[in-house]
Amino acid sequence: MKQLLFVFIGGGFGSVLRYLVGKWLNNSETGIPYGTFVANILGSLCIGIILGYAAKSETLTQNHTLLLATGFCGGFTTFSTFAYENHLFLKSGDFTSFAFYTIASFVIGFLAVFAGMYLVKFI
Q1: CB within 8 A of 72, min separation 6: which ones?
Q2: Half-sphere exposure of residue 76, counting CA atoms within 13 Å on the CB side?
Q3: End-to-end CA distance of the chain
Q4: Domain range list for the chain
């Protein structure tokens, strides 16, 4: 039960932060979802740092990892919104934005996880 609470609290904070980033960065004029993109990339970097640090050091407990990686990063990043925004690109016929957004999200997201894990070597 305690572990569920850690995930719940972390997820709540992550979701609120994602909402704020989306309100700040999503551009309704162009329809480009910068907020979702930034949240997913920063969340990928964050989870790379957290899990890299957890693997390197014994200072993060399982509960810390649940709070930060599963909860916070899980709430902060969003695959469902990413998928919906891509649906909107396809529905409007904007295949260029669809391709760019999809490819950039996956490539930069993976690189951010690897970068986070690499950065931990210097902590």
Answers
A1: 10, 11, 13, 14, 46
A2: 22
A3: 32
A4: 2-122
Residue 68 burial (CB count, 10 A): 23
With 0-12 / 13-18 / 19 or more C-beta atoms within 10 angstroms meaning exposed / middle / buried, residue 80 is exposed
Sign of CA dihedral 88, 82, 34, 18: positive
Residue pLDDT, tens place only, 41-84: 999 999 999 999 999 988 899 999 999 999 999 999 999 999 99
Note the residue count of the chain: 123
Query: What's the whole-model pTM score?
Result: 0.91
d(C-alpha 42, C-alpha 115), whole Å? 11
* Least confident residue range of 22-26, 88-92, 97-101: 22-26
